[in-house]
Amino acid sequence: MTDDTQASALVSIGELARSTGLAVRTIRFYCDEGILESHRSAGGHRMFDAESATERLLLVRRLRAVGLGLGSITEVLHGERSIAEAVAAESARLDIEFRSLAWRRASLRAIEAATPARRAERLALLAAAQDGGAVHDCLIRFWRRILAPIPRSDVDKWVYWNVPEPPADPSVGEIVAYAELAALVAEPDMNRTVRRQYWRNRPELIRDPRGLYVDVGDVMVDVVPLVAEGVRPRAGGELDRFVNAHASARGQRDSPSFREQLLIGATDADHRIHRYWALTGQFFGTRVTVGQAHHWVYDALAYSTDLADTPAAVTPKGSPTPIHVIDTTLRASN
Question: 1, 3, 94, 196: least surrounded by Cβ within 10 Å?
Fold first, then answer.
């Protein structure tokens, strides 16, 4: 206590407790934590400046009432953070906590909704995907590996556009779909299968991966409206540009034999790839996925080689089913 502090301005811990409605032990705890300053009387008792101590305790009480922790409150009282900053940080923390709780609730409901025969299978699926943010990161890493020859700065926009964000408040169907996406990309040979679909046959011959990435991307931009309008796979400018991009990247020219090479060992018909994009489509609504666009081009390529005389409006026996048919079927099965 300084010499100019008037004794009449000081109150005991008991008086402060009565005026603020706080317990004595609470005020003592705040003193020990450095939240509240006290002075010692000649007899060694804690004494407080009535006005400043009351004002500080009321602020602490109000901040505690809205959920702020003592660490954040201490930072506010010491001038290290404003009230607005502390509140914003707590709000952001709660957003994360609520998303986590919503994810857990949806998982439990999805397990309850499963038939007894499939409950163990669904439990295993969801137990491996209990963090939506972690699953999202896993999906992003998967696609970055697929497009690994391309600098990350060039592919991140593509990746974030084509990888769905985890729903903040997922339904049973959404959380099962998101968990299944995680399970698909975790399969040992899925990376190889999708890389083969994207880079096609003999990727080691590609001289300029980035140039091929850009050219194929431009083709997909023009294919997306065709898929959206329900145009069946066909020969034409889009397919020619796709083939030309792959041929030029390998130092070759478009020809019937080169088109056949693009189909050697093709993985486009792999049911897991179709399933991946069908599940992704559940989160994008009416937006056409890049997977649908790639499958459209693949079907057009198949028709232009082995089935050149078959009308594109008819699905030939033994050929891959057009992607929009597969997508509709898979959506119905969910």
Answer: 3
| Residue pLDDT, tens place only, 27-51 | 999 998 888 988 888 888 899 999 9
The answer to whether the beta carbons of residues 49 and 31 sit under 8 Å apart is no
Distance CA 300, CA 212 (A): 19
Tokens of 303: 């028709």
Residue type, 248: S
- Please, are residues 23 and 65 in contact by the beta-carbon 8 Å criterion? no
Contacts for 240 with CB less than 8 Å, ≥ 6 apart: 254
Contact 39, 10 (CB under 8 A): yes
C-alpha pair distances (Å), 106 with each of 102, 112, 132: 6, 10, 11
Determine the residue type at 135: V
Return the SS3 of 42: coil
Q: What is the pTM of this model?
A: 0.74
Write down the residue that tokens 């985890």 correspond to.
Answer: 166
Going by pLDDT thresholds of 50, 70 and 90, the confidence category of residue 306 is low
How many residues are given for the chain? 334
Instruction: Quote the DSSP letter at residue 44.
Output: S
Residue 21 phi/psi, 5-degree rounding, is 80, 10
- Which one-letter amino acid corresponds to residue 255? S
What is the Cα–Cα distance from 291 to 269, expressed in whole angstroms? 12
Structure tokens at 168: 């903040």
